[in-house]
Design brief:
CATH topology of the largest domain: Rossmann fold
Oligomer: single chain
Protein name: EngB-type G domain-containing protein
InterPro entries: EngB_GTPase, G_ENGB_dom, GTP-bd, P-loop_NTPase
Keywords: GTP-binding, Magnesium, Metal-binding, Nucleotide-binding
GO molecular function: GTP binding; metal ion binding
Structural class: alpha+beta
Strand order of the largest sheet: 1-3-4-2
Number of helices: 8
Helix content: 25-40%
CATH superfamily of the largest domain: P-loop containing nucleotide triphosphate hydrolases
Radius of gyration: 18 Å
Largest sheet: 4 strands, mixed
CATH architecture of the largest domain: 3-Layer(aba) Sandwich
CATH class of the largest domain: Alpha Beta
Number of domains: 2
């Protein structure tokens, strides 16, 4: 049986959760917090937190049994991660800057976690989902491949910095190799 998040959340909430809302009326859905979602009945909670669990049977179809498994973190681990991505007066989460070239990148002290991959696979959408509890951050996403052209830096308190990188492949920026290679070779954090 396929899990339909549109039915679990309601269509309007589902679309705003994944595609966001215009900045002028952006809101955070009440189920974006796993602590709020924990009050749902067990079946609905499982469908919300592990929507791909129905696909587990198909993952091993082409390979050895048990070779590929889905990651199902506990509610406690999700709560810890949620705390890391929830702003507070002592834990500021904000957009830092964008850089077309590495010499324009900010020099930050904390470690950097960069998201790199093929064009149009959802890197920016994943980052937007991570920052869903931070209403002041607008992570731009697009259905059009090659939308991200710069390195975008987001500070997550004193813990680390998230770097959204351009994708490679279809409609990659002309200077993609120069930007990404120099980033990966020279950034030490």
């Amino acid at each position: 049986m396929a899990v339909d998040l549109r039915r679990v959340l309601g269509f309007k909430a589902w679309t705003s959760l994944f595609w966001g809302t215009p900045h002028s009326w952006r809101f955070t859905h009440s189920l974006a917090s796993c602590m709020q979602a924990a009050h749902l009945p067990e079946r609905r909670l499982k469908a919300l937190l592990y929507p791909a669990s129905e696909l587990q049977a198909y993952l091993a179809a082409g390979g050895k049994e048990g070779q590929l498994t889905l990651f199902h973190p506990s509610l406690e681990l999700m709560a810890k991660a949620e705390k890391l991505f929830t702003p507070s007066p002592k834990h500021h989460i904000h957009y830092c800057s964008s850089a077309v070239r590495l010499d324009h990148a900010p020099s930050l002290q904390q470690p950097e976690v960069c998201f790199i991959g093929r064009s149009n696979v959802g890197k920016s959408s994943l980052i937007r989902a991570l920052f869903s509890l931070v209403p002041d951050i607008e992570v731009r996403v697009s259905k059009t491949p090659g939308h991200t052209k710069k390195l975008n830096f987001f500070r997550v308190g004193r813990a680390f910095t998230v770097v959204d990188m351009p994708g490679y492949g279809y409609r990659a920026p002309r200077d993609f190799v120069e930007i990404v290679e120099s980033y990966l070779e020279t950034r030490s954090k």
